[in-house]
Amino acid sequence: MKLSLAIFHHNMDNKSMKVVEKDKVISGMLQDELNRCQEMLNSLKKSVSELPKGVINERKKRYKDKVYSYFYLKYREGKKVSNEHIPNSQVQELLKKLELRKKYEKEIQSCKSKIVYLSKIMRAGKEKSDTMKKEYDFSKAEQGKFYRPIEKLEIPVYLDKEVKEFFSKTASKKKIGLDDVVNTILRKEMETLKAIGV
Phi/psi of residue 73, each to 5°? Predict the structure, then answer.
């Protein structure tokens, strides 16, 4: 969810300002986000394990001046490559599942990258906090010198445990992501509120 943030600057009247060695609020937010990414990664891995893998190939045969097509799923199990015949009536549904698997695999890579990044930040923050001074003198500091406006920021949204469990089951049944389920519901609610002029 992208939200516009207003940045407020506060005047510092004191000549010096104590810096806490470890910001528990920020550290807690990073840890929560790391946990959320790990939970999402586990959920995505589970979803991927329940979906078919491989590619669908088409073969054609001519018989009595007619060309017949039949499809098979080619996939790898360890070092073995297997081919499985797919009835024509099941091809479209299987293609959807294979496409969904690709989507989840991309999301898995994204989650892994985020986990590595967050872990790196937390380690660096811990190492830095161990070497920080107890006090810093800001008497010669220039207010707003390094300020840069932020138009949009990706903010993590956390669901209550009961809500998350309910919609996670719904997403699993429909073979779609939890984000897709929640966004669909919120979009419908948004349209309803617009319709009644709220």
Answer: -95, 125
- Domain extent at residue 185: 159-198
Quick check: pTM over 0.70? no
49 part of a folded domain:
no
**What span, in angstroms and rounded, lies between the C-alpha atoms of 89 and 75?**
20
Whether residue 14 is contained in a domain is answered as no
Give the integer Cα–Cα distance in Å for 195 and 198. Answer: 8
Tokens of 190: 């948004």
In a domain, 177, yes or no: yes
Cα distances from 104 to residues 72, 92, 178, 179, in angstroms, run 23, 19, 11, 12
DSSP string, 8-36: ------SSEEE--SS-HHHHHHHHHHHHH
In a domain, 198, yes or no: yes
Q: What is the pLDDT along the chain (198 residues), one digit of tens a residue?
A: 333 333 333 343 333 333 333 466 777 788 888 888 899 899 889 888 888 888 998 888 887 788 888 888 888 888 888 888 888 888 888 999 999 999 989 989 988 988 888 888 877 766 655 555 666 666 777 776 655 555 554 556 778 888 888 888 888 888 888 888 888 888 888 888 888 876
**Structural domains in the chain (count):** 1
